[in-house]
Amino acid sequence: MATSTPISQGGAPGTAPPPAKRAREDRQGLRNLLHRLDLRGAPYAFVAPFFVVFAAFSFYPLVYTAWISLHHVELSSLNLMEWVGFDNYTALWNDDRFWNALANTFTIGVISTVPQLLMALGLAHLLNYRMRGSTFFRVASLTPYATSVGAAALVFTMLFERDFGMINWMLSLVGVDHIDFENNKWAAQIAISTIVIWRWTGYNALLYLAAMQAVPRDRYEAAAIDGASRWQQFLKVTVPGIRATIVFTIVLSTIGATQLFGEPLIFGQGPNGITGGADNQYQTLGLLLYEEGWKNYQMGRAATVAWAMFLLLILVFVVQRVLKRALARRS
Amino acid sequence: MSSTRTKLRTRIAAAISAATVLGLVAGCGSGGGSGTGGGHKDGKTVITMGLFGVMGFKETGLLEKYMKLHPDVVIKADVAGDEQTYYTALQTHLAAGSGLKDIQGIEVGRAKELVDTQKDKFADLADVPGTDHFLPWKLSQVTAPDKKVIGLGTDIGPMAVCYRKDFFEKAGLPTDRDEVAQLWAGDWSKYVSVGKRFKANLKGSKAAFMDSSSGLFNAMIYGNSEQFYDKSGKLIYAKNPVVKDAWKLASQAATSGLTAKLRQFQPGWDPGLANSTFATTVCPAWMLAHISEKAGPANKGKWDVAKAPKGANWGGSFLGVMDNSPVKKEAKELVAWLTAPEQQSYLFEKIGNFPSSETALKSPAVTGAKSDYFSGAPIGKIFGEAATEIPDEQVLGRKDGTIKDIFSQGLTLIESQNKSPDAAWKTTDERIKKATG
Q: Strands B152-164 and B278-284, how do they pair?
């Protein structure tokens, strides 16, 4: 065996190339291989960090969460998992709290997103005028976005406080009785939406502003020659010109609204924040997940909520695609 | 030339990305050392503590005093304001096995759950010398069936009623603390009747009689040895007459407008104290520090303390040592010192946390203590007598803390959302089933 190995590798001893030539050919082959690797392999190496991060922080948690959601498991004893199949899912389907949280996520999402984007559009239009100190105003409109959710929510919670909050004090000046913002369902949802609107309007306005500056000037000039007023120009030139950006901000805000968590949590503070009010009047899906996982310590049920949210997002995506295709076919 | 440079650049970039990948993978694998943050550094012993609320060790300088007595010890204490937040983090850390401190505070509502599910992660404190001075029921709350003790007691929460003399005078009620105690002696329903009189007669103020109905509910249930669970660990809240009676009376108070519709320790309550929106609150000893701090110097001398209708214990805490702590021995010594009778009576004098040590309870510093802020009330005597009325056996359950929160929310449903007591009970019952199931 030991003697046959070199023969089978190098061929017959008589036909073997001289050692120097062989080394050169070997080096050539190695270089070829490296070159090919460089050409073909390098792009994969470049994108690899993303996939490693994705596998570690997105894909693995996703799969593991799905696995947990099929079990009964408590936070205090994570090593003891009891297989329950799809029980958690059927229980969630029959749970009023889930449908309530879903409805709240939707309503808070609508009353925060719609006014926010409309205001952002108006603000961007104003910022788009030629004026002194425009940079100052642009930066100023972004400052709320730079504030942390926690700080903003805490300040707003104090403003909306029932007995000594500033908003009730101002309302009392015009003769309106104190509103119990936390315990009234719609008042609480509007108050939470205010926090979201305050934080994100400026951010969206800047996105719109950037898009507006790319709209060709001559369109405005042509419109002006045709006798269009400022308002007509806004409606007929600006808005169609930035349609793509508007769609983008709607998608962005929708994702943000589904993830709504910090604002209602801090708005309620303590046990009431986790359950979204004593009557769950402003509990979002994010809060329901948190309540199951970190108040009731039922990790299986929390994982089920997480997967339900994920499936919902997929559903929304599919519906949107179907609608888009249907609309395209009609036109 | 340019092609070699490009190649070089590609190679560098590939190397960097490979290194990044390796770094990320390695970063996931390595866990940090002991995990409790404590240890021996530069010839000094570092002990970390996780605390909540006003346990007093940091606030009154006790930790600094210990460091002066032991120059080789450095104590780092983190204090979370809200116990719910603190306990959630503690649970997560226990499950993950990292992020724990050498010493962790344990609230009584969580004691049973930790004894049942986490006792292996705590060091046994049964053998620590000089710790035979506690009230027997206090230690039994953190003792496992195999006699392992996972914590040493700090304070207990005997209850009284804190009241505003000026409002009582306006309502034509007596202001002397003994006469006030006589108004409701023996029965909590008399306390609610006094409230109705107060409401009818109070002139020139909109102040409510009590802050929240959940305070009354707590006071009533904690006067009995069994509340939500029985001794075998079975849930009995739905049938326990103690809970039913407390619910009935508390919801009666809530529906007759006797409360300021506040939630204790939640937003609105502190400004309520500062702006005097209510006249009484059922106060465990440890609440005095909070009231005097939040009601502020402007209300000094307006508050007083009267004996409650019935003795009860609300709250109280323990200090536990983590078993994997690299400074376990030193941490045990520190816990023994912090819970020793001298320190307990010092804490009572300073901030009103009532001792769980029998020795401290009998010391003249405690029995003779008076509170300047509360019109010179003999708090040592009042709370001491209340402590003797606390049932000798206190049955704890796994989810006591959570169930208490759910009941408070149930009462809020009646108080602030105009639900009927029956509907609110139904919701509460369903929620407890979900939280414990």
A: antiparallel
Burial of A138 from C-beta contacts in 10 A (0-12 / 13-18 / 19+): middle
Question: B152: closest CA among B289, B316, B326?
Answer: B316
Residues on chain A touching B266 (C-beta within 8 angstroms): 269-270, 272
In the predicted model, is pLDDT for residue A13 greater than 70? no
Q: Does B409 touch chain A (CB under 8 A)?
A: yes
Q: Which residue of B has its CA nearest to A154?
A: B267
How buried is A185 (Cβ within 10 angstroms: 0-12 exposed, 13-18 middle, 19+ buried)?
A: middle
DSSP strand pairing (B208-210 vs B278-284): parallel
Which amino acid is it at A227? G
Token pair of B360 as six digits: 């401290």
- pLDDT mean across residues, chain B: 90
Please tell me the distance from the alpha carbon of residue A320 to that of residue B86, in angstroms, as a whole number. 42
Query: Which residues does B346 contact at the CB level (< 8 Å), separation at least 6?
Result: B60, B62, B365
Q: Kindly list the residues from chain B whose CB atom is less than 8 angstroms away from the CB atom of residue A49.
A: 17, 20-21, 24
What pLDDT is attached to residue B208? 96
Which amino acid is it at A107?
A: T
Inter-residue contact B436 to B403 (CB < 8 Å): yes
- Burial (CB count within 10 angstroms: exposed 0-12, middle 13-18, buried 19+), residue B325: buried
B384-398 pLDDT tens trace: 999 988 888 888 998
Distance in angstroms (rounded) separating the CA atoms of residues B393 and B137:
6
The β-bridge relationship of strands B39-41 and B354-355 is unpaired
Dihedral sign, CA of B287, B289, B295, B299?
A: positive
Residue reference for tokens 């007595």? B69
Whole-angstrom CA distances from A217 to A135, A213, A220, A237 are: 20, 9, 5, 10
Q: How far apart are CA B187 and CA B177, in angstroms?
A: 17
H helix runs in B305-420, sequence order = 328-338, 341-351, 358-362, 364-367, 379-389, 400-417
Residue B96, both tokens:
């993950």
Please list the residues that pair with B83 across neighbouring strands: none
Which residues neighbour A62 within 8 Å (Cβ) at sequence distance 6 or greater? A310
Of the CA atoms within 13 Å of residue A206, those in its CB half-sphere come to 16
Instruction: Give the H/E segment covering residue B48.
Output: strand B44-52
Give per-residue pLDDT as tens, A296-306: 889 999 999 99
CB-based contact B409 A158, cutoff 8 Å: no
Looking at residue B374, the DSSP 8-state letter turns out to be T
CA distance B163 to chain A (A): 21
ipTM value: 0.82
**Cβ-defined contact of B84 to A275 (cutoff 8 Å):** no
Pairwise CA distance, residues B411 & B250, whole Å: 8
State the nearest Cα–Cα gap between A250 and chain B, in angstroms: 34
Residue in the structure block whose two tokens are 């303590």: A270
Which residues, 6 or more positions from B59, have their beta carbon under 8 angstroms from its beta carbon?
A: B351
C-alpha to C-alpha distance for B43 and B31, rounded to whole angstroms = 24
Model confidence at B42, pLDDT cuts 50, 70, 90, reads confident
**Torsional class of A276: left (φ above 0), alpha (ψ -120 to 50), beta (otherwise):** left
Which tokens belong to A67?
Answer: 């696995």
CA torsion sign for A202, A207, A213, A218 is negative
- A·B CB contacts under 8 A: 100
β-strands B354-355, B208-210: how paired?
A: unpaired
Burial A55-75 (b: 16+ CB within 10 A, else e): eeeeeeeeeebeebbbbbbbb
Query: Using one digit for the tens of pLDDT, what is the confidence trace for B336-370?
Result: 999 999 999 999 988 889 999 999 999 999 999 99
Single-letter amino acid code for the residue at A294: W
